[in-house]
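Field guide to reading this record: the first block holds the primary sequence, the second block holds the structure written as discrete tokens, and the final block holds curator observations. Each block starts with its own label. This record concerns Tubulin-specific chaperone A, catalogued under organism Hemiselmis andersenii.

BLOCK 1 — SEQUENCE
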Amino acid sequence: PLVVNANVTGSTIEETLGRRKMLHMSQMKNALLEVKREANKVSDMASEMVGRESEHHPVDGQGENGFAIDFVNRVMKEAEELVGKHSEHEAEWYNDEKNAEEAMKELVQLSSTTLDIHESRIVGGNPSA
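BLOCK 2 — STRUCTURE
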């Protein structure tokens, strides 16, 4: 007897081509979540310090810790914009090796944007340095 085995679970060409983008965007979103987690920690710490400062003397929100909060917000905005930029690329864009390399470099940059590295400068010094 003749047995036919049809693999109906195989990927289409479009699915195969889109897989690289899907994996990359998953990594980008995970990196963004990590940046958000670190940003929230630093922002909470700076807000707490602004609150303590205002107990002792009036604060206009523009002291070192006010700037720290602005810095955290700026970093978050840039990270979200980067993820948005990557999501706008067509799936085929990620299959070009130069484009994929550029995307990976930006992913690594986003992943290394953990605000705990900047924490000592934010809370104790100049966050814009």
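BLOCK 3 — OBSERVATIONS
Residues 19-124 form one domain.
The mean pLDDT is 77.
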